[in-house]
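Re: weekly structure request thread

Next one in the queue (172 aa):
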Amino acid sequence: MDFQNLPSILTPDLGLLFWMLLAFLVIFYFLARHGFPVITKMVEERKAYIDESLRKAHDANEKLANIQKEGETMLKEARERQAQILAEAASTRDAIIEQAHTKAREEGTRIISEAKAQIEADKMSAISDIRKQVAEISISVAEKILRERLSDEAEQMKYVDKLLDELSYSAK
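Done, posted below.
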């Protein structure tokens, strides 16, 4: 290929190359002196921020896992406590039912005893009342019989003598 026929932009002069190199070196110097440290510092800060964010995310994941484990543990404990409370409630219920049955039996026995005592008292009262009525009826009947039998004086005297004889025999 012939470099002589190419346009000048593709084949620069030596002077142009020198000035271009000099401008590049000056710009590179200023960039290396002032620009690259700032850019490097920003990249390092960004890297540190990303590393810190990743560390925080990892810590958050660990905390979340711990919280989940604690939650599961608390849930398990709550279920165990619930089962324990239900068991206690069932035993308390059974005890209350047993006490109620015992109390009902005792109350029934007491009521039956009181009823028997009341029946016995009523029976004795009825027997006493019947005896009283029988005695009154007997006295009434005896009185009527005696009135009829002892209507005259001779009969009365004869009956009194008979009673006195019976008393004297029983006294001996």
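The chain has a mean pLDDT of 87. The helical segments are 14-149, 153-171.
Next request, please.
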